[in-house]
Amino acid sequence: MAPAAPSMPVPLRWKSALPATLALALGLICGLILVGDLEASGLLVSQKGRAFQPGNIALSRGETVTFVNDDSDLLHHVFVESDTFSFDSGDQEPGSRTPVTFTERGTFQVLCGIHPKMKLVVRVN
User: Fold this and answer.
1) Where are the domains positioned within the chain?
2) Can you tell me the distance from the alpha carbon of 110 to that of 120, in angstroms, rounded to the nearest whole number?
3) What's the pTM?
4) Which residue in 6, 91, 108, 122 has the fewest CB atoms around it within 10 Å?
5) Does domain 43-124 sit in CATH 2.60.40.420?
6) Per-residue confidence band for 36, with pLDDT thresholds at 50, 70 and 90
7) Average pLDDT for residues 24-48, to the nearest whole number?
8) Mind listing the pLDDT tens digit for each residue in 76-94?
């Protein structure tokens, strides 16, 4: 029978895992704070059930709207085409977030390239 492998005393094992545990916890907290600040600095528009919610928004020039694909199984594809402002998100996977900063004043129609009945009116002051 082979001799048993030496083991570290319990307090020593805990001390070696402590820095990694603290770093992980600190990273998690910083990530939550950052996400909270990003959401607080702009507007969220949900894409769910082949509709934008809300369907109309007003904002100031330079503000950011974050489009969130809240559908669990549908792709979306947000775009804006106008003479003064355009944007194309490409395909958005379920759960994805796409920020769009509206840099020009005007009224813009936001559409989904996959679901043609999805429409959002954005008024930028």
Assistant:
1) 10-41, 43-124
2) 5
3) 0.66
4) 6
5) yes
6) very low
7) 62
8) 999 999 999 999 999 999 9
Residues in the chain: 125
| 36 membership: H or E segment, kind and range | helix 10-40
Contacts of 114 (CB under 8 A, 6+ apart): 74, 75, 76, 77, 91
Residue 6, amino acid: P
For residues 97 and 4, give the distance between their C-alpha atoms in angstroms, rounded to a whole number: 53
Beta carbons of 112 and 76 less than 8 angstroms apart: yes
Q: Give 92's DSSP letter.
A: B
- Each residue of 97-115: pLDDT tens digit? 999 999 999 999 999 999 9
Is 114 strand, coil or helix?
coil
